[in-house]
Amino acid sequence: MTITHHLDGATLMSFAAGALPAALAAVAAAHVAMCPRCRRDVADLEQVGAALMADLAPVGLERAPVPAPSVPSAPLGGRPGARGGETGDIPHPIAPLLPRGLDAVSWRWLGPGVWDHLLPVDGRGKLRLLRAAPGRSVPEHRHGGAELTLVLRGAFRDELGIYRRGDVSELDESISHRPVTEPGSDCICLVASEGPEEFRGLLARHWQRLRGI
Amino acid sequence: MADLLRRVAEQADPGAFRELYQLYGPRVKAYMMRQGADAATAEDLAQETLLTVWRRAALYMEDKGSAATWIFAIARNLRIDRLRRETPWQELPEGRAEPPSCEALPDEALAEKQRQARVRAALAALPPEQHEVVALAYLEGLSHGEIARRLRLPLGTVKSRMRIAYQKIRAGLEDLK
């Protein structure tokens, strides 16, 4: 697997910072699990966080902790038992969302040759699988905000080239985009969008500004 | 620093742990407060961050990043989980799969230290407008859209500033690859 389309630098940095909306972070994590180059980048970008934290003015502590060796370990990121890498079709970080694999997904029909399947995420944004038959153009679906698409199976093509397994495509409002799936087999992608919450927040602020609040 | 962590890992030395806590606890608490926690919650989360270090010290490997980086990653994930009530999707450094030969070779630990110094130098050299967007993402957990609104800048400007900062950090590491 040769990955040619990576995460944008600004997205990777936000991911390492812990500032990416949850659904986008899920796709970023899945790509990072498949991509040694981005994994190296995330490790370097975590050092940015360490440096910024070290420069904060310290706030005095009230208590000293007692190290208790038998405290139960809380699930803390990377999902319990998660490891970089992948098994079968599904990158580790999202494996808990798809316990029965890609072939057991119950698809919702969206139009001729196009299906989707929503995946639950705690937090901001929407996460889903999108499946398109060969030679299909994926319908335009704007949610406002950023959108991240990771190829899990098959391939598609757009103005910027061919996207195969592990490749990620990143869009925002400023890009018009016409992806078409490659001939041969269905293309299945993991897609995250920032979702309407952020958009509503924007409208609210706009109103506030108009009313001079 | 790494030595403190080694004493925690290899000897479960409570004295070393207390020193580590005195060293990092106040910064983790400051970090949690910047992320919107009140002082009591921030203190609890700082404690929990360092207790996680205590529990997982044996998993720590020097070639996967500094103690400070590891503590940052733990604090970041706790903050997403507790303050934001979202799933932290980022893996902690010790869980990251690397090529099978991942014993802590002294060369790799050294290379890792060199990378840290380069990252810090590149960060310190960023012009204020790039440093600002980076700090808002890391220290306040703001998304690109939230930074744009906070600074009243177009979204594209925020993304390009952060992208340039990323490129500079990467460029500083180029010859170490």
Set down the secondary structure blueprint.
The complex is a heterodimer of chains A (213) and B (177).
Chain A: H1 9-17, H2 22-34, H3 36-54, E1 86-87, E2 90-91, E3 108-111, E4 114-119, E5 126-132, E6 147-153, E7 156-158, E8 161-163, E9 168-171, E10 180-181, E11 187-193, H4 196-210
Helix pairs in contact in A: 1-3, 2-3
Chain B: H1 2-11, H2 14-34, H3 39-56, H4 67-82, H5 106-124, H6 128-140, H7 144-151, H8 155-171
Helix pairs in contact in B: 1-2, 2-3, 2-4, 3-4, 5-8, 6-8, 7-8
Describe this structure in words.
The complex is a heterodimer of chains A (213) and B (177). Chain A is of the alpha+beta class. Chain A has a single domain (1-55, 105-213), classed as Sandwich (Jelly Rolls), CATH 2.60.120. In chain A, 26% of the residues lie in helices and 22% in strands. In chain A, the strands form three sheets. Chain A has a six-stranded antiparallel beta sheet with strand order 3-4-5-11-6-9, covered by helices on one side. Chain A has a three-stranded antiparallel beta sheet with strand order 8-7-10, with no helix packed on it. A two-stranded antiparallel ribbon of chain A has the order 1-2. Residues 70-75, 78-84 and 197-213 of chain A have low confidence and may be disordered. Chain B is mainly alpha-helical. Chain B folds into two domains: 1-96, RNA polymerase sigma factor, region 2, helix turn helix motif (Rna Polymerase Sigma Factor, Chain: A), CATH 1.10.1740; 105-177, Arc Repressor Mutant, subunit A (Orthogonal Bundle). In chain B, α1 crosses α2 (14-34) and α7 (144-151) crosses α8 (155-171). At the A-B interface, α1, α2, α3 and α4 of A face α2, α3, α4, α5 and α6 of B.
